[in-house]
Amino acid sequence: MAQDTVDLLVYNIGTLMTMQGPKGPRTGAQMSDVGAVHQGAVAIFGGEIIAIGPEAAVRRQLADRMVREELDAEGRLVTPGLVEPHTHLVHGGSREHELSLKLQGASYLEILESGGGILSTVKATRNATEDALFAKAKRSLDTLLLYGATTVEAKSGYGLTLEDELKQLRVTKRLQDSHPVDVVSTFMGAHAVPMEFKGRGDEYVKMVIQEMLPDVKRQGLAEFCDVFCEHGVFTVEQSERILTAAKELGFGIKIHADEIEPMGGAELAAKLGCISAEHLLATSDEGFQAMAKRGVIGVLLPATSFNLRAKHARARTMIEMGMPVALSTDYNPGSSPTESMQLVMTLSCLNLQMTPEEVLTAMTMNAASAIGRGDTVGSLEVGKKADLVLYDATNLAYLPYHFGINHVNTVVKAGRIVVRNGQLIPTETEARA
């Protein structure tokens, strides 16, 4: 280390889950290796990790260097900042009125076809101002941070016109520019066919390809493009057209695949080389095999299955087939209105039969890889961003075991303490206001 100072030293860590290991997403038995260090420490300078390991070894490396600030972990469990790879963060309104419809037996697609579901949120989002969308999304992003998420993907898809999609994406950019959490933007104009195009899905697909994608790219408002490939939404052929056009423009590509029916979305993800495929509740073994061969990351959303009372994704099959698996809240106003990745930890253990170690891997390195951030976040290593979460727990299994509460005590984002004692620390701008 050339510098003479250390910005922050986190010490007296009971168990430090470094997630150090192979570069890129982890598969199979690799998902159980969390790189645990007991009585650890992390030294930070310029927002990055400069030393990590057993505390005695780290302190030797810091000899003769001034430490500006020290944080006593008091024996707590420390992990990398959690990475949330799939949210619909920016939206207007909420859909609690649909709960009674679900209890009466209405299916997800039946609610959508009646003008509810996504289309209900589209109406609310179109009617909302950009500032109102920003304020609402910021509250959810604050909650995600309080629960340990330090990097969050955010999809559009509730505008379904060029201007309303751009409005959502501008809000995402404002959040990225002003909030401590890193926000990764995904364009999802192909989230549903809007009511004004009902029965004319191919015309809407043409508009997405010819008008929306080029304008979003020109304005630099999204890094990825996603599409909802599902019966009653977009066909495999339509999805392929959209994703191929997006890929040619330089977007990374993702797909909502096989959530309700085995449409062949997983096979399409493999064919096109998507970075990830999401949901995968109805995917065939052949689809999993194709994804594993191409290294497509499966992003699983157990809170959505829980809330819809649907079957759960076959996580064990995916892991045994050598697929990299990531986990997400799928935070959205309808099928998964929760910002708690800790709840997802519990659901993943109980309903997906994943171990706590596999869950942590799926929420750190694999999740980071699913949004193209595996080189900078997802593990605690020298040269990576100093994103850390300190929990009021001494071991990993306690997090999913003791469910329904927030275990996060402190969050360090890019070397700065942004949550302390479970409370957000205002930014300088917020403090002046």
Automatic annotation (TrEMBL):
Domain of life of the source: Bacteria
Positions that bind Zn(2+): 86, 88, 256, 330
Enzyme Commission (EC) number: 3.5.2.7
Main location, first listed in the record: cytoplasm
Cofactor: Zn(2+); Fe(3+)
Positions of N-formimidoyl-L-glutamate binding: 158, 332, 334
Binding locations of 4-imidazolone-5-propanoate: 95, 158, 191, 259, 335
Places the protein is found: Cytoplasm
UniProt pathway: Amino-acid degradation; L-histidine degradation into L-glutamate; N-formimidoyl-L-glutamate from L-histidine: step 3/3
Keyword field contains Hydrolase: yes
Pfam families from the UniProt entry: Amidohydro_1
InterPro entries linked: Amidohydro-rel, HutI, Metal-dep_hydrolase_composite, Metal_Hydrolase
Catalytic activity: 4-imidazolone-5-propanoate + H2O = N-formimidoyl-L-glutamate
Enzyme class (EC, first level): hydrolase
Residues in Amidohydrolase-related domain copies: 77-418
Classification via CDD domains: Imidazolone-5PH
GO molecular function, one term: imidazolonepropionase activity
List of residues binding Fe(3+): 86, 88, 256, 330
Cofactor binding note of this UniProt entry: Binds 1 zinc or iron ion per subunit.
Gene Ontology biological-process entries: L-histidine catabolic process to glutamate and formamide
GO cellular component: cytoplasm
Keywords: Cytoplasm, Histidine metabolism, Hydrolase, Iron, Metal-binding, Zinc
Function of the molecule: Catalyzes the hydrolytic cleavage of the carbon-nitrogen bond in imidazolone-5-propanoate to yield N-formimidoyl-L-glutamate. It is the third step in the universal histidine degradation pathway.
PANTHER family: IMIDAZOLONEPROPIONASE, IMIDAZOLONEPROPIONASE-RELATED
Family membership noted in the UniProt record: Belongs to the metallo-dependent hydrolases superfamily. HutI family.
Protein name stated in the entry: Imidazolonepropionase
Organism (species): Alicyclobacillus mengziensis
Gene (name only): hutI
